[in-house]
Design goal:
The chain is α/β, with parallel strands linked by helices and about 325 residues long. The protein folds into two domains: about 5-100 and about 285-305, NAD(P)-binding Rossmann-like Domain (Rossmann fold), CATH 3.40.50; about 100-275, 3-Layer(aba) Sandwich (Rossmann fold). Helices cover about 35% and strands about 15% of the residues. The protein contains eleven helices and twelve strands. The strands form two sheets. It has a seven-stranded parallel sheet with strand order 8-7-6-9-10-11-12, sandwiched between helices. A five-stranded parallel sheet has the order 2-1-3-4-5. The chain is elongated and about 65 Å long. The protein binds nicotinamide-adenine-dinucleotide.
Length: about 325
């Protein structure tokens, strides 16, 4: 048994446990713990692995006297009090790369679903209807796809869009003029992207600067009859402004995997026939869940055994 102990506090692929155990860490899996129970046992652990269920609060961190690293199998660290961790010199890490294919494929799926009204046609047909006229669609081929945010997910979406024979535009403030973009992808400015695109898909982070970026003004500048997909973060799109843009017919449809408040409940947008929604399932594939667990385990091993740091969210 190793002296270095890791607690896996949320459900994740058992591969994570196997990798860390084989690497010489002692791993306990104890999921669904109430905060007081977690507080009682956390003092003995050097590593804490979570997904989104366990709340790593300042109160928990105050009891985590041996803790050196908290890892999120996934991207968002909203459930971890990062400033409190930093103040206690606890390293926070995440595993962004494992989700990229899953989130990107969901966005591509929404493009087809919007263009051909697949969810609505399926619901109508399986309830006895045969509404061929109602489900007239549009083709993706030859249309312009605007990718806002060209990091690990957006890049893959841009590449796949080009593969679908779409004309692909990309905007990302981090892309320089000499950026190495996938073949067939054109770097443009933000205003050009939103005014030229038939489909706009969002793959940027939620930051103070991007909160409400797709509000009344931006939505109004989008091409009439265009579609919006948000598989990035709720809050980047102003849901009230989106409702107005869809209701007025300026936009033809929207698909959202993420919401300003989650779970979102029955938001006004859902009154509209041309809105598609899913419950933040961008990363919910078997492959992604396995990849993020493996990545977390490898980062923990490297850090706890070899003192090497990757995927840092904070600087301690
Ligand atoms: N729906 C889901 O379940 C799910 C799963 C994984 C990731 N995500 C979200 O997807 C988004 C992208 O994730 P990623 O892993 O590709 O991140 P990333 O950090 O690799 O890429 C994000 C890119 O956005 C760019 N960016 C920053 N500000 C911008 C702006 N104002 N306009 C345009 N681009 C801007 C950055 O320069 C960066 O290149 C994030 O919001 C992430 O939280 C959602």
């Amino acid at each position: 048994m190793s002296d270095i102990k890791v607690l896996v506090a949320d459900d994740m692929s058992h591969d994570a446990v196997d990798i860390m155990s084989k690497g010489g860490l002692t791993v306990d899996v104890n999921t669904g713990l109430a905060p007081d129970k977690l507080g009682e046992i956390i003092g003995q652990y050097h590593g804490l692995a979570v997904r989104s269920a366990t709340k790593v609060t300042a109160a928990i961190l105050a009891k985590a006297t041996a803790l050196r690293i908290v890892g999120r199998a996934g991207v968002g660290v909203d459930n971890i009090d990062v400033p409190a961790a930093t103040a206690r010199k606890v390293q926070v890490i995440n595993t962004p790369s494992g989700n990229a294919v899953a989130a990107g494929e969901l966005a591509i799926g929404f493009l087809f679903a919007l263009a051909r009204k697949i969810p609505q046609a399926s619901a109508s047909t399986t309830s006895g209807g045969w509404e061929k006229k109602k489900f007239m669609g549009v083709e993706l081929t030859g249309k312009t796809l605007g990718v806002v945010g060209c990091g690990s997910i957006g890049r893959g979406v841009a590449e796949r869009g080009a593969g679908l024979k779409m004309r692909v535009l990309a905007y990302d403030p981090a892309l320089g003029a000499d950026a190495d973009l996938p073949a067939g992808v054109e770097r443009v400015g933000f205003d050009e992207l939103i005014s030229r695109s038939d489909f706009v898909t969002l793959h940027l982070p939620l930051l103070p600067a991007t909160k409400g970026l797709f509000g009344k003004d931006t939505l109004g500048k989008m091409k009439k009859g265009s579609y919006l997909v948000n598989c990035a973060r709720g809050g980047i799109v102003d849901e009230n402004a989106l409702y107005e843009a869809l209701k007025s017919g300026h936009l033809a449809g929207a698909a959202l995997d993420v919401f300003e408040n989650e779970p979102c409940g029955q938001v006004p947008l859902f009154e509209l026939e041309n809105v598609l929604a899913s419950p933040h399932i961008g990363a919910s594939t078997k492959e992604a869940q396995q990849k993020v667990a493996v990545e977390l385990a490898e980062v923990f091993l490297d850090f706890l055994k070899n003192g090497r740091l990757r995927n840092a969210v904070n600087k301690v």
